[in-house]
Amino acid sequence: MNSDPVPGILSSFECKQENLLPILHAVQEVLGHIPSDRVEVIARALNISRAEVHGVITFYHHFRSTPIAQRHLQICKAEACQSMGANDLFDHALRRCGSKSDAQGASVALDAVYCLGLCAMSPALMMDGTPHGRVTTDALDKLLDLGR
Ligand code: FES
């Protein structure tokens, strides 16, 4: 059995450039990301350059070139949270997680976001979709340790 789903996905679309977006969506839906070694295959099938495929992948934030991390940490760096130490919190998270969200194989994807609607509870963050307010570095450490 062939474990690469990309040829099957390509065969389900007419091979024309207009189908690049739906093909990329289909590949990401199946694989969770668009591996760099599949870009060449997609480009060849659509008779376009690798640079064109890569350009579309990097233009749309939805598309990922690396696998999604197991956990997702979003720290608000908007004004209210910044005034309550969000930048220090973010730097602390970066030291703990060791990478931002595009890092390959990261177990925690870390992203800066700009207002979670929790301004009255600054600094705020979202861990795996759950909001947390008035977060200290100790509280963040506990959240990160829970996922281990
Ligand atoms: S500014 Fe951080 S939640 Fe609004």
From TrEMBL:
<comment type="similarity">
    <text>Belongs to the complex I 24 kDa subunit family.</text>
</comment>
<dbReference type="InterPro" id="IPR041921">
    <property type="entry name" value="NuoE_N"/>
</dbReference>
<keyword id="KW-0411">Iron-sulfur</keyword>
<dbReference type="GO" id="GO:0051537">
    <property type="term" value="F:2 iron, 2 sulfur cluster binding"/>
</dbReference>
<feature type="binding site">
    <location>
        <position position="76"/>
    </location>
    <ligand>
        <name>[2Fe-2S] cluster</name>
    </ligand>
</feature>
<dbReference type="GO" id="GO:0016491">
    <property type="term" value="F:oxidoreductase activity"/>
</dbReference>
<keyword id="KW-0408">Iron</keyword>
<feature type="binding site">
    <location>
        <position position="81"/>
    </location>
    <ligand>
        <name>[2Fe-2S] cluster</name>
    </ligand>
</feature>
<dbReference type="InterPro" id="IPR028431">
    <property type="entry name" value="NADP_DH_HndA-like"/>
</dbReference>
<keyword id="KW-0001">2Fe-2S</keyword>
<protein>
    <submittedName>
        <fullName>Formate dehydrogenase</fullName>
    </submittedName>
</protein>
<dbReference type="InterPro" id="IPR036249">
    <property type="entry name" value="Thioredoxin-like_sf"/>
</dbReference>
<feature type="binding site">
    <location>
        <position position="115"/>
    </location>
    <ligand>
        <name>[2Fe-2S] cluster</name>
    </ligand>
</feature>
<feature type="binding site">
    <location>
        <position position="119"/>
    </location>
    <ligand>
        <name>[2Fe-2S] cluster</name>
    </ligand>
</feature>
<keyword id="KW-0479">Metal-binding</keyword>
<dbReference type="InterPro" id="IPR002023">
    <property type="entry name" value="NuoE-like"/>
</dbReference>
<dbReference type="Pfam" id="PF01257">
    <property type="entry name" value="2Fe-2S_thioredx"/>
</dbReference>
<dbReference type="GO" id="GO:0046872">
    <property type="term" value="F:metal ion binding"/>
</dbReference>
